[in-house]
Each structure stands twice: as C-alpha cells, then as structure tokens.
Specification:
Layout: E1 13-18, E2 21-26, E3 38-44, E4 46-47, E5 50-56, E6 65-66, E7 69-71, H1 78-90, E8 92-107, E9 112-126, E10 134-141, H2 152-163
Parallel strand pairs: 3-9
Antiparallel strand pairs: 1-2, 3-7, 4-5, 5-6, 5-10, 8-9
Length: about 180
Amino acid sequence: MSVRYCPECGTAVERRLVHDRERPVCAACGFIHYEHSRPCVGVLVVEQGKVLLVERAVEPFLGYWDVPGGFLEAGEHPAAGAAREMREETGLEIEPTEVLGLFMDVYGDQGIATLNICYLARVIGGELRAGDDAAGLRWHPLDRLPNNIAFNWERGAMEELKRRGGEESKSRGGRSRAPSPEP
C-alpha cells in the first residue's frame, strides 16, 4: 500500500531511494512517507490434537480457514486484542498463555503489510459460536489441516505449532470449558 499524495501539502509524491529503501517523497515539501506494518493478533487453541479455525465469511479469502484474530485497535495491548478477537469470532473467553511467534504477511488486494503476533491460549469460558464475520468454526487435526488456509503467516504459525509438538491448551481447572473438539 502506498500513498499517492503528500499528507502535508497535497502534492503528488514520487518514489525515491531513502535510507536504502524506495519510499514516497514529496517533491514540493520534502516530506518522506514511511510505510509501516499494521499490528495484528491471532490465537491458536489446541485441544486433543486439534486446533480451532474460523471459516471466513468475508473477503479476502472468503470460505477459507483462518486463525481467529485480526487487526489491533489503536493503543490496544496485543493480549487484550487477542482476547477481544477470540470473543468476537468464536464466543470463547481465552487467556493467552504465550507468544508462539511473530509473522510478517500482507493483507488484501492493497497489499497492506502486517505484523502478526500469534498467541497460544487456553479457554476459560464462553460458548462456542461463530461471530458475524465467520461462516463457521471447526476443530481441525494438526496432522490433517485443510489446504485452504487463508494467510501465509498462518501456515508458518501452524508449522511452528507442529514443530513444538502441538502443545495442548490447558484451562485453569485442567480441562477446557469449551465443547470438546468434534472428531
């Protein structure tokens, strides 16, 4: 994603090499537009060797399987954003237990650069239900994940999860309050 006009004076920008990168620069006032990755979160909950995924009901990747998550709100802590996104998309209350990893990707046709913070989490409450931007929810065996995973970063996160042995999510009482994953 790139700007076409200077946000300071409105003049059309041109691409120039600045600090070893091509960047939009205003020829009139010299403003340099630094493009930044947008922070996102994703949440992986694993139970009985299965991971919970969301079927996307919106573009991009309508009908593909997605890690529950999304863009962070301004000033929102990533762990709070992970809990909010999980609640909105799945109806489950979670407690993030650790960061699985950080993954770079792009979002949508505009190629918005994203920095994806992927949490492992345990369910601590709620009722499993698809949110309004989800066509469905399903527990997928880690050794038989669907081919139509929405974003590249999610494939990297799943590989990292498998490399670690598919760590189970544990609830406070030792057992999740979420319904058991379907066979």
